[in-house]
């Protein structure tokens, strides 16, 4: 078990201030706050492991996505995606979504479970689009994810390969842009420690310790 985890690299007390050990997080309330804070802050921290979680769908597929925001009041994560992506259709059929993070520095795994909803229009999507850079918007200008190709391709129109399109040129990309909201029902928190791992399940209205 945990073959990937090199116990020799783990030194108690050597963690950074952000990566708190289990000695600090010995209450379920503290874990609840810490997990929410890690997700909320990761949206602004590209180096955080929580910035690029693995997002799993009900078809046993999983992929890395950038977490754009975490609404601590509603336990809702926001991701951006292509409206034509296979996961969009999967979520429409079965909305169960899992979001998993392994933070090596913090010796921490968090598995979040929730319900996903893809939003194509409205103020939220408009705001997300407006906040995206031209470089990010360019991703939605070409062919949709998963199309067959005869040769290696970015899927982008040739004139936009390695170039940042102008705002006018990016207008057609907007209809391919979607927001994925995942409302989290519970976090499965797993803290690795040489002294003995710890695990807790933190739900919206309750929390409990469980064995690792
Ligand atoms: C570091 C990294 C970040 C990514 N971020 C996103 C993202 O924010 N949104 C997204 O839809 N795909 C993102 N991808 C691509 C997905 O992992 C995946 O390949 C793509 O969404 C294909 O769609 P599917 O999962 O529906 O088949 C990212 C990939 C990597 C490696």
From TrEMBL:
Which InterPro entries does this chain map to? Pyridox_Oxase_Alr4036_FMN-bd (IPR024624), Split_barrel_FMN-bd (IPR012349)
One Pfam family name from the record? Pyridox_oxase_2
Q: Which domain of life is it from?
A: Bacteria
Q: Which GO terms describe its molecular function?
A: FMN binding
Q: Which SUPFAM superfamilies match?
A: FMN-binding split barrel (SSF50475)
Q: Which N-terminal stretch is annotated as signal sequence?
A: none
Which intervals hold domain Pyridoxamine 5'-phosphate oxidase Alr4036 family FMN-binding?
A: 46-118
What name does this protein carry?
A: Pyridoxamine 5'-phosphate oxidase family protein
Q: Which organism is it from?
A: Qipengyuania soli
């Amino acid at each position: 078990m945990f073959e990937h985890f090199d116990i020799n690299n783990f030194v108690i007390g050597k963690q950074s201030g952000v990566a708190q050990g289990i000695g600090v997080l010995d209450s379920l309330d503290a874990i609840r706050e810490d997990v929410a804070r890690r997700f909320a802050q990761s949206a602004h921290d590209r180096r955080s492991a929580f910035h690029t979680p693995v997002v799993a769908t009900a078809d046993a597929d999983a992929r890395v996505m950038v977490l754009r925001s975490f609404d601590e009041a509603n336990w809702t994560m926001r991701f951006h995606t292509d409206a034509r992506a296979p996961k969009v259709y999967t979520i429409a059929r079965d909305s169960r979504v899992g979001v998993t993070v392994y933070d090596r520095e913090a010796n921490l795994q968090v598995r979040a479970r929730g319900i996903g909803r893809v939003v194509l229009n409205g103020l939220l999507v408009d705001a997300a689009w407006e906040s995206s850079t031209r470089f990010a918007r360019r991703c939605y200008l070409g062919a949709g994810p998963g199309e067959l190709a005869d040769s290696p391709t970015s899927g982008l129109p040739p004139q936009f390969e390695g170039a940042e399109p102008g705002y006018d040129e990016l207008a057609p990309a907007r209809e391919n842009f979607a927001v994925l909201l995942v409302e989290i029902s519970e976090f499965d928190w797993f803290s690795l420690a040489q002294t003995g791992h710890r695990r807790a399940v933190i739900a919206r209205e309750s929390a409990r310790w469980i064995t690792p």
